[in-house]
Amino acid sequence: xxxxxxxxxxxxxxxxxxxxxxxxxxxxxxxxxxxxxxxxxxxxxxxxxxxxxxxxxxxxxxxxxxxxxxxxxxxxxxxxxxxxxxxxxxxxxxxxxxxxxxxxxxxxxxxxxxxxxxxxxxxxxxxxxxxxxxxxxxxxxxxxxxxxxxxxxxxxxxxxxxxxxxxxxxxxxxxxxxxxxxxxxxxxxxxxxxxxxxxxxxxxxxxxxxxxxxxxxxxxxxxxxxxxxxxxxxxxxxxxxxxxxxxxxxxxxxxxxxxxxxxxxxxxxxxxxxxxxxxxxxxxxxxxxxxxxxxxxxxxxxxxxxxxxxxxxxxxxxxxxxxxxxxxxxxxxxxxxxxxxxxxxxxxxxxxxxxxxxxxxxxxxxxxxxxxxxxxxxxxxxxxxxxxxxxxxxxxxxxxxxxxxxxxxxxxxxxxxxxxxxxxxxxxxxxxxxxxxxxxxxxxxxxxxxxxxxxxxxxxxx
Length: 462
What we know:
Elements: H1 16-35, E1 39-40, E2 46-48, H2 49-52, H3 57-62, E3 66-67, H4 79-84, H5 87-94, E4 97-99, H6 104-113, E5 122-131, E6 143-152, H7 158-173, E7 180-185, H8 186-195, H9 202-209, H10 212-215, H11 217-226, H12 231-236, H13 238-242, H14 247-257, H15 262-281, E8 287-290, E9 304-309, E10 320-325, E11 339-345, H16 346-355, E12 369-371, H17 376-391, E13 396-398, H18 405-415, E14 419-422, H19 425-429, E15 432-437, E16 443-447, H20 451-459
Parallel strand pairs: 1-5, 7-8, 12-13, 12-14
Antiparallel strand pairs: 2-4, 3-4, 5-6, 6-11, 7-9, 9-10, 10-11, 14-15, 15-16
Helix pairs in contact: 1-7, 1-16, 7-15, 8-15, 9-11, 14-15
């Protein structure tokens, strides 16, 4: 008995309807990327392992899918390494490539390799799949699309303001009103680590803090202690956990907490400028909120960081995020190139739009008209008619066989086709075709030489 087919956990098949909805989101995002002056690029689905490893912190490195070398890779491993069963020493010998974990590090590699071809500041967008060996759960998959926009070669905080506006424009266009764009600054977190005496443990501090929404305050503190951050240092950080109020009130409290930290105060000043500028230009439907607990676990962030939350009442993780990285290209040899970027979580945005019933009804229509098939002579005439309608810009199709009329109508109904064309022997004799509205049942006659007029009328309805 044949084994039942399956797909790997954390991956999905997509039906025509699902693909249409995903394309709707992608096209909306892409439209605004281009409106804001971003240019498209693409990079390979896999990179050299050395390009990716060590760029995301220990936790990120563990989630990178490694690709085994081709051929008899085991024979090339020496006996000592093989018998040690140490994955850290064995993996580099049997795997030289890996699936990309995100689009940002490959983008940094792209910039360094093409630095003499690029006009700086360089604004790029990229919409491609990424892979992470994460534990699958609602809204979290092992294969998923990222929709990224980045600017490199400009350190102006106006870029951060522009990204807030970009988030607002896309979500407003999608009808997803009421999203919250959370903002913080890694310099503030660096300053806090400094004033509590844990500067050398900044990465451990931010990785633990990044889990606050998932595991709660007490477990975050416990993880910090496990990483070597003292109980006294955590006690000094308590004001961070207790900060409340408006953005301006929180910033004033941070000024007190970070008074002895130069880098921390710089982070406060940057946030003040970004927030005040956004308030001046205004947003359409989103709101900008300072969240001093926002950390984002990736190591390469150095300045402002963003995370987007779905409207209140929708249980979903972040649907977007990003931030400033001052020297990401430096890891590939190109120093002092500042960058900032954001990402849209396509799959989570899909789930939110589905939950709130925000997809346009028109996405369910894959065909504007279906022409029934009444036989060889009629079918050839119908094919000519369908070809003419396609040239007029309609999505038109001909049922391929002269099956029973009831079966053809049933097919049209299942496909959600709004209009069905009947072109039988009698219609051919009279040089006309009959159009049935599948919703109302009304039927109307049209002359075979009036396709342009008919197409204009259908376009006005679908």
